[in-house]
Fold each of these.
Amino acid sequence: MEHLDIPKFLGLMVIMLGVAKLAGVLAQRISQPAVLGELIAGMIIGPSVLGLVDPNIEVIHLLAEVGVIILLFEIGLETDLKKLLQVGGASTVVAIVGVALPFILGYMVCWFLGLSNLVAIVAGAALTATSVGITARVLSDLGRLQEPESQIVLGAAIIDDIIGLIILTVVAGLTQGQEVTIFQVVKITGIAFGFLIVTLLLGSLIVPLLFRFVGQIDLSGTLTVPAVILAFSLAWLADQAGSAMIMGAFTAGLLLVKIPQAHEIEVSIAHLGHFFVPLFFISVGAAVDVRVLNPVNPANRQTLLIGSLLVIAAILGKFLAGYAPFWFRGKKSVIGVGMIPRGEVGLIFAQMGLSSGVFNARLFSAITLMVMVTTFIAPPLLKFLFPAKHPGQEPPEPEGIEDLVTKP
Amino acid sequence: MEHLDIPKFLGLMVIMLGVAKLAGVLAQRISQPAVLGELIAGMIIGPSVLGLVDPNIEVIHLLAEVGVIILLFEIGLETDLKKLLQVGGASTVVAIVGVALPFILGYMVCWFLGLSNLVAIVAGAALTATSVGITARVLSDLGRLQEPESQIVLGAAIIDDIIGLIILTVVAGLTQGQEVTIFQVVKITGIAFGFLIVTLLLGSLIVPLLFRFVGQIDLSGTLTVPAVILAFSLAWLADQAGSAMIMGAFTAGLLLVKIPQAHEIEVSIAHLGHFFVPLFFISVGAAVDVRVLNPVNPANRQTLLIGSLLVIAAILGKFLAGYAPFWFRGKKSVIGVGMIPRGEVGLIFAQMGLSSGVFNARLFSAITLMVMVTTFIAPPLLKFLFPAKHPGQEPPEPEGIEDLVTKP
């Protein structure tokens, strides 16, 4: 383990935050989501290209994990359970089919390639989650957020996120165990649901009282620190209960949505997120071994083959899911394409598979390739199918987007 | 070096942030500054009492250092150089005498006790800095912020902070070198002033252009990350130039005060500060070995003797400085008492002395005792000499206080 002195640590932070910001802005300049730029920047400064940042340094690894915990806390804080329940049938059908189909197709690809059952399950799971942030951002930039197609996509993407988190918990349990039995799957699903239900029920009684009490005794303070403490505590508790840490952080977000100071907390956590979240994406990018994607080397062709097949499974699965609500009369192609970008959660699966030893470097790179291609392909496709309504319109502020997406 | 897994790291963060918040609120409840509560909480959870948190764990140490860098960046962001120049003669005289007198008295105490020249200089330096945050907060709580006495105190405290930072840079250089010559002192003072002047001159040309450019290319983003990058970069640069890292962070703050988005940046950095700054105070508290303050053990009497003499030197030096602007017709006692709390910068000296090996654990504890007593004694004394103008008045929000203090 490398020892870091303070100036060297500050230098690393400047490099990571600097290239993340720069690459994010460049990506947005060419109409791509910022996260794509951060991933590519991570790849470039990582050990396989420039070697400026090693994601295995303990403090970098810990801060990156804080980044993903804060990201899921933010997603929780932006998720309105009531609105979710209002969006109705179409969103639910799209979400369920949009999880099942890519999983089955991804599993079949792995099975066809002779990979093990556990690897096929984790790889299939990595194909299930839609990135609600990217989709919402693109639809908003096109001025199409209030169209029925967009509403279905957004509702489905939010439901998808919750299903994805449960799958993530199941998969996290599976990657830690040795054997995959139906009993184990049921047990882990039970713990995931149980943790979510117990925490939501107990939490919705205790958390509002707790935060009212904190607000009363701490006249001069802000709620940033109590909110972070809640997120970290539930992440720790989820881990102790055998569930996924990010599940705890997400639940902490859901619990705080309802309290009067929710918006204030959302803004505070967003500021922490600006600092911590890019460290996660840079670390994930840095973990990609770019060399295994080089097609000139014959040894890499297997990675590229798996990656290409997973890309096809990922795109086809979500695209067909758009046609599942057969009664809907709008542009069904838009729904499916809107569900294609995988983003954060797909990367979390990839990272989990790698760090638990279920994936080797090649499969990790193939999954990352799938995440990058799906994230990259969706914005131009959406633009083509669903042209901007008001072409001259300025894109609104990101905070405004989130408000439109999740608040009535 | 202890290895930390993620749940254990989250647990440590929950403990540190939780007790810091709790102790801060409790301190405020008994009309004491929050920082005092955080220090005491750190002492209690540190290795010498409960042993819950070890400040020597690498990631804790690095995050605590990020905390002090962000704190000084915040102080810089709240320092209005123009306002500083307007407050005129009285503030300057109070500041200069209020630095010189405690330094001389502190040096004499150490000399009297037979300590070395270097130790006496560093200990004397630790007695020089006034905590502008604590003083401003107390005066505002008393509804007395606009009185001439308060204006002099606040002006002097801000000048004092800058002189303190230069002394800090000199002392940081001295603690790294072996010999203390006049040439060295002049050279280090030259580097400190040189770094400040060159960075301020070059920076005031480049930074506004840079941030206007960043604001133009990054329509959707916030300036949190660019601001942090600037602070970390100048901290790193200051270290490379042979100056103190916190001097670089403070200069970064001064450079951003003038740009149009200064308030937005101040709010963002305050949110990061809520998370990182308590980690610094908890770490400093945890570094105090409470056992050496136990008077029952005869071996500790020397620590308590040094501590008591330093407390007297610290209080007397600042109190007499209040009488330096002899032409001022207001309550001179209020000025001196307002300058007594040492707070953050005093602790940074103590920490620097300890980590460089200039101070042993006893002297470190004696200095910490001095910081704690001066921080603790000032609020009740000020209340006694300068009773609240509107006793029923609600204390204003902290952000409001800072606005009153540093903005026209």
Note: Confidence is low (pLDDT under 50) at residues 391-408 of chain A.
Amino acid sequence: MRPSSIEQSILYPIANPGSIAFFGASNNISAMGTTILRCILSMGHKGSMKYQGEIYPVHPREETVQGIKAFQNVADLPVIPDLAFIVLPTTIVAETLDACGQRGIRHAVIVSAGFNEVGGEGKDLQEELTAVAEKHGIRYLGPNCIGVINTQMNLNATFLPYEADRGFIGMASQSGSFITQISPHLSRQGMGFSTGFSIGNEASIDIVDCMEYLGACPRTRVIALYIESIRRGRAFIDAARAIVPEKPIVAFYVGGSDEGRRAGFSHTGALAGPDSLYDGVFRQSGVIRATSIEELFDFCYCLGASPPVRGNRVIVQTHSGGPGAAAADACGRSGLTLPNLSPATLESLKPYVPHTGSVANPVDLTFTKNPLDFFQAIPQILMSDENADGLLVYFLATARMIEVALKAMGVPDDETGKKAEEIIGLQADAIAALKEHSCKPIVGYSFLARKESSLIRGLQDRGVPVLPSPERGARAMGALVKYKNLKGKLTTE
Amino acid sequence: MRPSSIEQSILYPIANPGSIAFFGASNNISAMGTTILRCILSMGHKGSMKYQGEIYPVHPREETVQGIKAFQNVADLPVIPDLAFIVLPTTIVAETLDACGQRGIRHAVIVSAGFNEVGGEGKDLQEELTAVAEKHGIRYLGPNCIGVINTQMNLNATFLPYEADRGFIGMASQSGSFITQISPHLSRQGMGFSTGFSIGNEASIDIVDCMEYLGACPRTRVIALYIESIRRGRAFIDAARAIVPEKPIVAFYVGGSDEGRRAGFSHTGALAGPDSLYDGVFRQSGVIRATSIEELFDFCYCLGASPPVRGNRVIVQTHSGGPGAAAADACGRSGLTLPNLSPATLESLKPYVPHTGSVANPVDLTFTKNPLDFFQAIPQILMSDENADGLLVYFLATARMIEVALKAMGVPDDETGKKAEEIIGLQADAIAALKEHSCKPIVGYSFLARKESSLIRGLQDRGVPVLPSPERGARAMGALVKYKNLKGKLTTE
């Protein structure tokens, strides 16, 4: 029953609700439900954009909740809301869901915990939930989840502010933390979610359903999965194989070690399998496996930002030997090769490279020539080399170098800062245009962060991914090649 | 000829010069020499501390250089400087060094490139340099290096500003970049260099000499090495084995892949060997190998900040399942185990953990109890467990949670911010004191950065290392255990 369009997905009303019945918010601001409601109301999206749907708090006693008219019972609501959002004590969740069903609601998010993941009586309570949901034909996220983010809707139905931009990463996570607590990390690289689902115990909607939704979502260019265990192995493989030819899927799986397995079990009650089993599933599925949460997002970032790569031959451009060598070594360990430059490329480079530089690959320009060539003439020459499938570029503290160059050219001191920023904007334009026209991936790396460098920010804002170290840049470039190979295998099988 | 004290080291006058003769600076601000001189003059250390030694620019024509009286010839200098710093065109370096020798100078840093690393004539020029140095008994760093940083002296003799604090990491690097360009990265975690040497082509002073200096340096708690190749294998092993029982050494080696080896060769002309060879050397030496530049500094950071660990049994404390499971899995992959909590610990924890939490290890507190217990009562109980050799703690957006708790307690809105900061300071104090008194390592991890969170900053400033992801925290904890094992092996052999 794969949805043929995103609107047909059982997750559509959950990620795009026009109206929400909210259970568990009050005027006690330290309650979890209140916190989530306040996030929906005030922190829809960075830059104070707000969720535009209707919200109907349901509360047994309060007239208003956080300034919004409240209703004593869901039966009293003036409309049938698209979604019930439930943050209530464990024992009253089932009866609340039943009341929602009677009112005609067919979709829910159940944040409340204390079900399967705690065992014993919690299992009985989850079974009761399932029975109620089936009776009414309700599909729901959770229980024991943390909510949903849809940046396009300005909907942040979680308990922490979303601090990143709108992005192209669609995520389904068996931990709410990687939906709610990761936005500072995403923001630091200029990344962001299109949509994020915290899926909790997966009693009704599971990771496969989320993959299918994200596969159909036009704003999602790449799918990120955090997995402690896959419950429907066959369905996972089928769904992934249908999606991967269109968009990449990256998974971070933590159940592969004894320690990870035990931790996952006490987290969501899921039983994990050994690494080898999951490696097999991912290989069959065409899913790229990441080895850490940072790598998960590094890979997604570069996959979503890059055109398809044609092969594994990478040119490393640097003006510092160490970051070049470290990138080269990491390329070697990530399935990439560094081809020799073609004779035509060597000839074209001659005017630009000083005698202390190197035109081997890595192309190490050192520092003695015009810093501006670094962004225009040189990468253009390198990218037109027939041996180059992609470019990995090290970016240094350019603003300062350009300012010094301007001062040396006689530009008055009080104008160099502004002039340098203009030049940096043009350089970032040049790199972004080169990526566009060459149809080859460019991945940057730098020890400078977005907040510290207008060049890094400028590149990232123009769609050129820049990662914080040579190894992370190289591995992400390796993931592009992995995706090419996985996709190729799936489509020729 | 190992130095018995740091003052006897041939590197002492290079890292602690009372006076410097500077060659290659001028009033052209875009020249590399000028840039370095300006770094010495204006950017000795973050917070505008300045190098206090004497500087004697030598320039054939200028009366003053960057506002300092210049001398036409080194022979004219009023004193014999401790150090000659040379940033001149390749072909005049040897004659300049000769003039320095005649004036009685016995130590130099040669930044100029174009020697062995470019092959051909460059090799001849480097041989000439060696002959001149030997004639006068001069020892020097370089050529093809980028200089030296000694934060204690407020000496930043490199071409970029040093943007981190004084720290305990002593580094010797076969790439200048990892001395000059890494400070934004160090700063982001509250790390810093004690001393950093860029060693270039190692014509006179090599990585072994630097290790010996750093081994004797009282402000260096851990030694970081960036290696493209080791020239004196036996001496390296001997030096490391003498140091490791006293302080840890971490090495990042990039020559192990074909791509890394080729890149290193064109960078400094060094011939690298396969991974297996270097793994053997590091094992024999008691040196911990890092697999990336980030890991090099992560390991150094935690090794330098932590008391010796007694075993590999780690308790993971979290209030979010995913970051706990990811840390647990990474622990399992880093040689660590997660012991069960003892019955006494379980009993003591009872009042603090809600029913949705877990007292398995990871200890997952979830969110429903008093957030302040997270920093005092709970870690204290965990650290006194006889099964715990160390604690790995996940830190979330605490400031906001504390503010909400304060508001709920009736603290007026305009006072919650200040009050929350006070509480955070006390919490950071509590964690730091616990680390101190328990004599067991505590490593934190968080997706929040120092600049975004006063808790993270507070912890780091009090000597509690906090890393940016669960895996990096776990791997660094693993490095502590690796060090214990390597040291144990060396001292019992």
Note: Chain A has a mean pLDDT of 91.
